[in-house]
Specification:
The protein has 335 residues and is an alpha+beta fold. It has nine helices and 14 strands. 41% of the residues lie in helices and 18% in strands. The strands form five sheets. It has a five-stranded mixed β-sheet. Strands 4-10-9 form a three-stranded mixed β-sheet. The protein has a two-stranded antiparallel sheet with strand order 6-7. Bound molecules: dinuclear copper ion.
């Protein structure tokens, strides 16, 4: 095989690999780590930038020297064997000290951020207990006496002190734009404090493999302006009005069925195994961020949850299509 026919496929595969790799790059996806929207996120991005630029500089020098060596000392036919070196104290010292210096440069800002972000939360912080469960997130606000699931509302500009607890297996709380990823470990209480700075909706995801629906353990953090947050919190505390029509039928099915064993709806039931549904109708998504919260999806869900989410703990309750539609209408009315 001559050089021409063996070289072209290699170049083509290299280009193909490059295109595939670059195709995975994006700046402003919902799970980006490059657009920080909290103090913690900015701190991490700062350290990340230092490391990325330092690494880019090192790569430039290393590959530059490599290219120069390849060109300068290329083997030529008939050339004599170059001088052979065995051991070089100065070189050995240099390439030991250089990486140590690089690590030192990286460690100073990293340790600084670690200590700062592990500090005790300030007194005015909003306390939230985060429970990672297979496969959804529970958010309790002990000082506001409300609980929600999969959608964490926080006021912009006020520190949020999250206490992370896991009733079943290890999960990991991660909302990339708001900063640190932190494990949720059974039997431990981990702390994560950050101040969301910009109102908006931020996507998050469990970041520790926790079973068959790990990938479906998503969440949203909705950062509200302070007055909007107060309105949201007040609305969460209101006991839902008695429903009418189809929703009233749905309520009767809910209240007399197995639903009450697992779910809380204030004034109706007090189950604690599944998400609190008191204001379910105000949520944007269903099944830990898998689907938009529409009555059609909810009807499908209550009929056969396992068909929509693998491994889900909620059983199919044997509802008819009409019963499922009524329950969905009732749940939609809860806001
Ligand atoms: Cu929870 Cu992965």
């Amino acid at each position: 095989m001559n050089r021409r026919t063996s070289g072209q496929p290699a170049v083509r595969s290299a280009l193909g690999a490059l295109v595939l790799t670059l195709g995975g790059c994006a700046w402003d996806t919902p799970m980006t780590t490059l657009i920080a929207r909290s103090d913690f996120g900015r701190e991490i991005l700062h350290v990340y930038s230092i490391i990325a630029w330092a690494t880019a500089g090192i790569a430039l020098v290393v590959f530059g020297v490599l290219a120069w060596v390849l060109a300068r000392f290329r083997a030529t036919p008939g050339a004599p064997l170059p001088a052979q070196t065995r051991g070089h104290t100065l070189l050995e010292i240099a390439w030991t000290i250089a990486p140590a210096l690089v690590l030192l440069v990286i460690s100073v800002p990293t340790l600084h951020v670690i200590f700062r972000t592990q500090a005790a939360p300030p007194a005015q912080a909003l306390e939230v207990t985060v429970l990672g469960r297979q496969w959804w997130w529970e958010f309790r606000y002990p000082t506001l006496n409300i609980a929600t699931a999969n959608e964490l509302h926080l006021p912009a500009g006020r520190p949020a002190a999250l206490r992370l607890e896991g009733p079943d297996v290890i999960h990991s709380f991660w909302v990339p734009q708001l900063g640190g990823k932190r494990d949720v470990v059974p039997g431990r209480s981990n702390q994560l404090t950050f101040t969301p700075q910009v109102p908006g909706e931020y996507w998050g995801q469990c970041a520790e493999f926790c079973g068959v629906s790990h990938a479906n353990m998503r969440m949203r953090v909705i950062v509200d302006a302070p007055d909007a947050f107060e309105r949201w919190a007040a609305a969460q505390r209101v006991t839902p009005a008695p429903p009418t029509g189809l929703a009233a039928q749905g309520k009767a099915i809910f209240a007399s069925g197995a639903c009450v064993a697992c779910h809380t709806i204030r004034g109706v039931s007090a189950g604690v195994l599944g998400p609190d549904l008191t204001t379910f109708g105000s949520r944007r998504t269903l099944a830990a961020g898998m689907f938009p919260n529409t009555p059609e999806r909810v009807a499908e869900w209550v009929k056969n949850p396992g068909g929509l989410k693998p491994g889900v703990k909620m059983p199919a309750l044997g509802l008819t299509d009409d019963q499922a539609r009524a329950v969905a209408a009732y749940l939609a009315s809860l806001k």
